[in-house]
Amino acid sequence: MRIRVETDGILYPVELRLRTTDISVFEEVLVNAEYQFAFSSNARVIVDAGANIGLTSVFFANRYPGARIFAVEPESSNFALLADNVSPYENVVPIQAALWGETTWLNLANPGTGNWGFQTESHNHSAPAEGLVRGWTLDELMRKYNIDYIDVLKIDIEGAEKEVFETAERWIDRVGTIVIELHDRFKPGCSRVVYCATKDFPYELRRGETVVLSRVRNAASLNLATSCDADSSQVGPRNNSQRRRRSRIVASSTST
Q1: CA-CA distance, 75 to 200, in Å (whole number)?
Q2: Which of 214, 185, 220, 218 is nearest to 201 (CA)?
Q3: Which domains, from first to last, does the chain contain?
Q4: How confident is the model over 63-73, as pLDDT tens digits?
Q5: Burial level of 208, CB count in 10 A (0-12/13-18/19+)?
């Protein structure tokens, strides 16, 4: 069953699936404003990798209405709802694909953690088959959509950041700020690969499981980034001082 929910500060209602992780994603992203960081107000390009049902892209579309936003999500049921949620925003481009370290076909694995926990893994055959998704490198995505520079790169891809950042030398100089959740618990070495790739990003901010790495000091709370030997277990407690937004259900249906 789907419900439609209105939220303070968000222009259009979003749709959620009851009895799924959609509710938790909604609370984190639109109620608790998990991605409310002090980015440049002039952000022109935002890539939302691991976009799930599109709520982070919706949040960015409301905060940065002048930006082009690319919402990348591999899983079909999540992507269908993502496409519905971002449809009122002309500046959001939904893309059904997965970021990876090479251009290839990938398997989608469900570890049983809900709709927000799908993981990608290598597929050994060259031809597509049912259940596979296309894996793109970030520089290929930039070529396809004529992106010269990414102001904000948000990544929450359940461990695939390791493969993505192992080839970061091809695109890292064209990214200004990275907002990432690290998943060493799924794939050891994620943090080290990411920190080594971003050694020229001097500023860092951590909030809960989210790490912000930036080339520009955009907020007084940004600190010098740690070394490439960093471990994601160092992430500090969530900042609970954010303003909570009010929301209400405006409609429900039995559609799936």
Answers
A1: 33
A2: 214
A3: 2-253 (3.40.50.150)
A4: 999 999 999 99
A5: middle
